[in-house]
Amino acid sequence: MNRRVKADDPFVVVYVAQGMLIAEMIKSKLESAGIPAMLKYESVGRVLGLTIDGLGEVRVLVARENENDARALLEKNVET
Predict the structure, then answer these.
(1) Phi and psi of 23, rounded to 5°?
(2) Which of 4, 5, 17, 69 has the fewest CB atoms within 10 Å, measured from its CB?
(3) Distance from the first to the final alpha carbon of the chain
(4) How many C-alpha atoms does 50 have within 13 Å on its Cβ side?
(5) What distance in Å separates the CA atoms of residue 25 and residue 31, rounded to the nearest whole number?
(6) What is the pLDDT of residues 16-53, one digit of tens each?
(7) Which three-class secondary structure string do you get for the chain?
(8) Do 74 and 27 contact (CB within 8 A), yes or no?
(9) Partners of 18 in the beta sheet?
């Protein structure tokens, strides 16, 4: 989970949530707009239900070509 995103990486992080519930909501929002998304997380946070010190951190990733659309959608939803 700590690996850095490289310029040639096909996926980019568009949102970092503290907990699976919020991450699933963000993923659903993206997918309902036609933007495929996936979640990346440490399994121990999910197994133990911890959301402290980064253990509950869930990253929402999209394909690099969808990054701008995903960020615009998430910004729009935050503002409303």
Answers:
(1) -60, -40
(2) 4
(3) 31
(4) 11
(5) 10
(6) 998 888 999 999 999 999 999 999 987 665 555 555 55
(7) CCCCCCCCCCEEEEEEEECHHHHHHHHHHHHHCCCCEEEEECHHHHHHCCCCCCCCEEEEEEEHHHHHHHHHHHHHHHHC
(8) no
(9) 57
